[in-house]
C-alpha cells in the first residue's frame, strides 16, 4: 500500500531529516535575509533532481511531476524559512551559531520537513500521477509577509494548484499527533503606532501643560470600547497595547507619548470598520483634551480560513495515516500567520504538527529562548504531508 511505503520512507529518511533540521537550526537567518538558507534548500532540491525557480529574492518554488498516467492535478505544499531575533538558551549541540537569532517558531522544522516530503515523493515518482508544487518562502515573521510577495510573483500560477497545504509546529500537541480546524482559524493582524502630542512642563504645574500622558491613558481605556461595545460578541476581536513610551520623569510631564499595539479579528468588513472607529475615537479624545493624536495603522495579514472541503478531506487522510486517536480538533487561534494570504487566494488547509514531549521537558512555547521539539515529529511531518499530497492528487 502507498501508505505503508510512505511510512517506511519517512522512517528510513528520518535521520537525514533530523540532520537537515539541526543544520538549519544552527544557521538561522532573519526575515528576508534567508540567503544561506535559500542556497541550502536549492542545493538539496538540485541533489534530488527537482527543478526550481527563485521568487521574492530568497524564496523558491519547485515542481515534481509524477510519472503515472492520470489527471494532471496540482497540490502545493508550503514551508517558511525565516528565524526570529531571539537569543537561544537551549544547551544543545545544535544551538544557534548566529548570536541573537534563533529558530524559535519552528520554521527550521517546516523547511526540513518539506525537504523530507520532497525526498519521499521523488522516490515515488513512478507510483503517482499529478504535480506537487513545493513552496519555500521567506519572511513569514515580518510585514508585508513573504507569502504576499510570493503570490504577487506568481507562485500560485503556472500551474495553478487545486489546494495549498501548510503545517506549523504546535507545542501544545504531543509529537506524533496533528490538529485540524475547518473554516476560520487564525486572526488578521494590524500594527497600531500612535503618537499623542501635547505640551510638556513641570509636574507640579500641570495647569501650564497639555498632558499627553493623561490623554494617552484616556485613549487606551476608551479604545477598549471598540471590542466591548462595537464588535459583535460572536466575532472574536483583540485590541492590545504592549508598548507605551512617555519620556518624562517624576516631576516632568513630557511633550508626547508614543504607543504601539495590535488589533486582530476574523472578519475583513469589521476589520475595516474598526480601523475607522479607532482612529476617529483617538483623534477626537486628544483634540477634546487640547492635544493631538497621529494614529497610524499598518495593515498586516488577513485572517486565515481553512477550506471546508479540503480540510475535511485532509483530516480523513490524516486519520488514515496516523490513526483517528492522533488527529485532534483545534480551536480558533488569535495569533496570525501569513499563510492566510494563500488561504484568501486558493483552497487551503493549515494544520498543526505536534512537537511536545513532557517526559523530555520539551514544553516551551514558540517565540521563547527555550523552544525546541521532539524530533520524532520529523518523521510524522514529512510522511503525513507526502500522504496528503498524493491522496489529494487522487492516488
Walk me through what this model shows:
This protein folds into two domains: 2-187 and 302-392, Aminopeptidase (3-Layer(aba) Sandwich), CATH 3.40.630; 190-299, Alpha-Beta Plaits (2-Layer Sandwich), CATH 3.30.70.360. 35% of the residues lie in helices and 25% in strands. The protein contains eleven helices and 16 strands. The strands form four sheets. It has an eight-stranded mixed sheet with strand order 1-2-4-3-5-16-6-15, sandwiched between helices. A four-stranded antiparallel sheet has the order 10-12-8-13. Strands 7-14 form a two-stranded antiparallel ribbon. The longest helix has 21 residues, at 268-288. The chain is elongated, with a radius of gyration of 24 Å.
> Which value, in Å, is the CA radius of gyration?
24 Å
Shape descriptor reads elongated
CATH superfamily of the largest domain, by name, is: Zn peptidases
Q: Output mean pLDDT.
A: 97
Number of domains: 2
Measured as a percent range, the helix fraction is 25-40%
Distance between the termini: 11 Å
Oligomeric category: single chain
Q: How large is the count of helical segments?
A: 11
The secondary-structure element order is HHHEEEHEHEEEEEHHEEEHEEHEHEH
CATH architecture of the largest domain: 3-Layer(aba) Sandwich
Main β sheet profile: 8 strands, mixed
Spans of at least 5 consecutive residues with low confidence? none
Overall number of strands: 16
Indicate the CATH class of the largest domain. Alpha Beta
For the largest beta sheet, what order do the strands appear in spatially?
Answer: 1-2-4-3-5-16-6-15
Strand content: 15-25%
Structure classification: alpha/beta
